[in-house]
């Protein structure tokens, strides 16, 4: 993982003092990990990948929201890290990712809030020069990872679905 990588969340929330719902977005650049690639006969295979996100460093446009996710919903004080480990190798044509965006399905185990679940999600991948980029998102009901949608007594209500987003940049070590 190199600079420019980030991960975070997106949820729909309704603040009592605003007339409509809006997106609450939090991001962190505290992402570590690596992937193992092999290349043969015009294809690139990702044989292994593992990433860690320090969810206790997520920040949004509101410090109150950032403080609350440490205690409710994500409970990042209790579960400071979220992880992903590739469980199925992925092969893609080298021509499909060099200077282009390839749409692929990636299967792996996410560990969020202390709950591990195998998920398959769409990911956009590209290779530009020596930088490999993977961008994707996983939307899920809070309960799938043992969480409850945050609600603060009439002041804030959050939708029942959360989205985890990532933009990973990797370079050859």
Description:
The protein has 173 residues and is mostly beta strands. The protein contains 2 helices and 11 strands. Strands 1, 2, 3, 4, 5, 6, 7, 8, 9, 10 and 11 form an 11-stranded antiparallel sheet that branches. The longest helix is centred in the middle third of the chain and has 6 residues. The protein is elongated. The termini are close together. The model has no long low-confidence stretch (mean pLDDT 92).
Number of helices: 2
Q: Helix amount, in percent?
A: under 10%
Could you list the spans in which at least 5 consecutive residues all have pLDDT below 50? Answer: none
User: How does the overall form come out from the CA principal axes?
Assistant: elongated
Helix-strand makeup class: mainly beta
List its traits.
173 residues; mainly beta; eleven-stranded antiparallel beta sheet; 11 strands; elongated
How would the blueprint of this fold be written?
Blueprint: E1 6-15, E2 22-28, E3 31-40, E4 43-54, H1 63-68, E5 81-86, E6 90-93, H2 94-97, E7 102-112, E8 115-128, E9 131-141, E10 151-152, E11 156-171
Antiparallel strand pairs: 1-2, 1-11, 3-4, 4-5, 4-6, 5-7, 7-8, 8-9, 9-11, 10-11
Produce a short descriptive summary:
The chain is mainly beta and 173 residues long. 6% of the residues lie in helices and 60% in strands.
